[in-house]
Amino acid sequence: DTAVSQTPKYLVTQMGNDKSIKCEQNLGHDTMYWYKQDSKKFLKIMFSYNNKELIINETVPNRFSPKSPDKAHLNLHINSLELGDSAVYFCASSQTRDRGYSSGNTIYFGEGSWLTVV
Amino acid sequence: GEDVEQSLFLSVREGDSSVINCTYTDSSSTYLYWYKQEPGAGLQLLTYIFSNMDMKQDQRLTVLLNKKDKHLSLRIADTQTGDSAIYFCAESTGGFKTIFGAGTRLFVKA
Lengths: 118, 110
Description:
The complex is a heterodimer. In chain A, strands 2, 4, 5, 6, 9, 10 and 11 form a 7-stranded mixed beta sheet that branches. Chain A has a 4-stranded antiparallel beta sheet with strand order 1-3-8-7, with no helix packed on it. The model of chain A has no long low-confidence stretch (mean pLDDT 90). Helix content of chain A is 0%, strand content 53%. Chain A is an all-beta fold. Chain A contains no helices and 11 strands. By secondary structure, chain B is an all-beta fold. Chain B has strands at residues 4-6, 9-13, 18-24, 31-37, 43-50, 55-58, 61-66, 71-76, 85-92, 98-100, 104-109. In chain B, the strands form 2 sheets. In chain B, strands 2, 4, 5, 9, 10 and 11 form a 6-stranded mixed beta sheet that branches. A 5-stranded antiparallel beta sheet of chain B has the order 1-3-8-7-6, with no helix packed on it. Chain B starts with a strand and ends with a strand. The chains are: A mainly beta, B mainly beta. Chains A and B meet through strand 5 and strand 10 of A and strand 4, strand 5 and strand 9 of B.
């Protein structure tokens, strides 16, 4: 069973379109994330939700809107897609632990969604 | 601010040991991680170390932590071609934000 699954894996779309990427985790975690990985493989956090509440919102254009219907799902909707949005988007999850827990809040990643805007 | 730095490239011969280094700036970092990313795949957790430890060994992997110098390393013994990947160092203070380095691209020559 896939722990963090996201769909679609590949997405090719035209500029100006609106698209969504869905993510689900079956690990029972209370925190979910969206990361963006650019062509140079740099990984940057975009959003984080804890118990369906937005807790991290980095400097991301407001064309990107995350939605968390429940703790197990975090979807990413992108409006008016631009060429520069082409990247790999990773969903991830973790379980909040008390400080001092040996593995901390280890993040588990999905396989990624390859978005190409043409 | 928080920052994690690692060299971008490392090339080794098959059978040799690989050592990937990482430095971080946040002295309150409590948890440090190594992730592996193979081509076309997501990031896979390799190992982690808690800040009160100096070393952790797991089969071919050895993690060394020098908290004074804020230096973390990952040693892969008997490196194989299947170890070719990008290795990300990451730090966390136990909160919701985990900071990742830029990744070290490991090339293993047969």
